[in-house]
Specification:
The complex is a heterodimer of chains A (234) and B (76). By secondary structure, chain A is mainly α. Chain A contains nine helices and no strands. Chain B has five helices and no strands. Classes of the chains: A mainly alpha (234), B mainly alpha (76).
Amino acid sequence: MPRRPLVLPARVSITVVGSQPTAGTRAGLDRESKRWVEQLGAGHPRRDRAVAELHELLLRAAIHELSRRRDQLGSITGPEFEDLAQQAANDAVMSVLAKLDEFRGCSRFTTWAYKFAIFAVSGKVARHAWRRLPPSRRELAWEQVPDSLSARPGDRLEQREQLDALSAAIGELTDRQREVFVAIALNDVSIDVLALQLATNRNAIYKNLFDARRNLRARMAAAGHPVPERGAAR
Amino acid sequence: MIDRDHLDELLRVSDGDAGCTAGEDILDGYVDLELAGENPAVTYPGTAIHLQSCPGCRADHDGLLEAARRFSREPD
């Protein structure tokens, strides 16, 4: 099975107010995690077997995750589906082995390892979806008000004015902010598919989306139609 | 039709959003806290906020939570 490099999104930060722990320093490992780390280490007599077990585990996770995201895979089935799962598992194993020294024990080892399988599947599904059905020009452009924002006969005047204000505010965003907001927020284009379409990464797209939303809120408020925040951490 | 809740969802931004990067690094710890019955928002407030707004990271989180819940075991 050919191995392909795991492509994780590049990093950009958004708006960090306050702080939260990072992966941090290595904590005392639980017994199971300790065994994984020991047996996967270079020179351990059971390393080959541990690598095979890890691959088996990550393959199972990859298959499950691909099934969970099946709606983005179109008609992929059989050998093609299995090949995609194998590629994701291979990439994930390579990432785990390459980063073994970075495991800090902030989670169980298996949860940490599964993370790489999920990231690998996420990237492959997005690439497949993008190749199969890239976003249309209509999904990216602000050429017409989408149905979800159209005023309807029964709408109250206040709602119509609010929609008009939102529509005007969208028109005043930067080209990139408008493109990202229209595609993701209004047309349900996948953030990772859009990142591929625009030759960038998830983090950068999210930053555009974040800025677009903040600008729209500000413009709505300035137009006399503030949108109160309900946001609370879950 | 767009209502107030839909509009709030559409324009959701929250101060303290840690972004994708921070979440990717600690997502495993975040998920294990959830599986232990603890509230990960206490330890990772910025990521808890971020997961409400970022569909890509939320999908990764949901997948990891499910995988960790279903498949974890130790080597023979």
